[in-house]
Amino acid sequence: MKAIGKFILLELSEFSEWLSMQQVTRKITLIQQHHTYMPGYKQFKKNNHFELCMSMEKFHMERGFAEIAQHFTTFPDGTIMYGRNLNTIPAGIKGANTNGICIEHLGNFDKGGDNMTDAHRHTIIEMTKQLLKRFKLTACDQTVVYHHWYDLTLGKRIKKEGTGHTKSCPGTNFFGGNTVDDFNKNFLPLLLK
Asked: In the chain, N or C: fewer CB atoms in 10 Å?
């Protein structure tokens, strides 16, 4: 574990114990999945985790946020950066933040973008499983959500795929796609193992 200011870089092997020690007073019902899109894998130099997160925070503050939007950022090497207090509501998905934990996965996971590393893939799966366990949530498409499923303007979950004003986040190739069907077919089974 390494820290610079409020940012803490954790190995996946450290995450469960660290998470168990956190006093979370908010009710958590959603684990949000996002991709950064930019920066992506090309900007990751294997030793610039803190620099990237501090840069993201600066960008978020320039957009009017009080600090970095996400609680966690995952990296291609499988590490996890903590950057926003878990008791602070994230700025991740309009309409789904109050009871959410926001995770940004560094990379562009749209088709034709970054090819997710095995280490990154493993961390995303295991971290999500540990968060579900910590907050006593059952893995399903009501507790693990993709940004793509929410209308950016209305801040409501879309009822029909392909409607509304949405982002591709966490990517059109994130574990096989970004639709609810893609989640249930590809990502959910990995969370249930």
From this structure: C
